[in-house]
Amino acid sequence: MWDSIPNVRREGDVGAEVGGQDPVDARLGVRLAELRAERGWSLGELAERSGVSRSTLSRAERAEISPTASLLNRLCGVYGRTMSQLLSEVEAEPALLVRAADQAVWEDRASGFVRRSVSPPHAGLRGELVEGRLAAGADIAYDRPPVPGLEQHIWVLDGRLEVTAQDAGHRLDAGDCLRLRVWGPTRFRCTSPEEARYVLAVVLP
Fold first, then answer.
1. Confidence of residue 92 (pLDDT cuts 50, 70, 90)
2. Which of 79, 98, 151, 162 could form a disulfide with 203 if both were Cys (CB 3.0 to 4.6 A apart)?
3. d(CA 170, CA 142)
4. 150 has which bridge partners?
5. SS3 letters for 10-74?
6. Contact by Cβ (8 Å): 131, 189
7. What pLDDT score was predicted for residue 78?
8. In the predicted model, is pLDDT for residue 87 greater than 60?
């Protein structure tokens, strides 16, 4: 399991500057470069497919920046993976059991979003569970799903969450569950005065 997960410091197409090369960022950069090489794409071709600049892609592959959630989401879309699958590929031995204390946590401090990978990581499986936490007033948006037609079940445990998908808004209170097939942009916003905590079940089509 991971000893640490890089913090995501701001959203957008660029990653966050890192003071020294993080080992997880380094392994992730190597894997991103491998995926591009496997397809025979140049940085320019990947930039056209992902909408991310060549310089940002190059710096991410060299681990000169810590990728943002938005950047990884775009690359996952190009490579046909969920974010958990991509991140699991930098680990050699997927575990069958992951204790709570060992579950990988990814924090996007700029948006107030914390993502915990609950399911043991495995690149070959279709389903996974993720715990999301959004601070009061936090708002996070994705311009596309990592895999078109991705099935999501969003079960709110605490607080209140507003989810927008396919131009339709859904208000979810504690205990409510929303099921979606995601084809386009999505937005998650905490509309309660306290933190919203939810379970996201993801199933590949």
1. low
2. 151
3. 16
4. 182
5. CCCCCCEECCCCCHHHHHHHHHHHHHHHHCCCCHHHHHHHHCCCHHHHHHHHCCCEECCHHHHHH
6. no
7. 94
8. yes
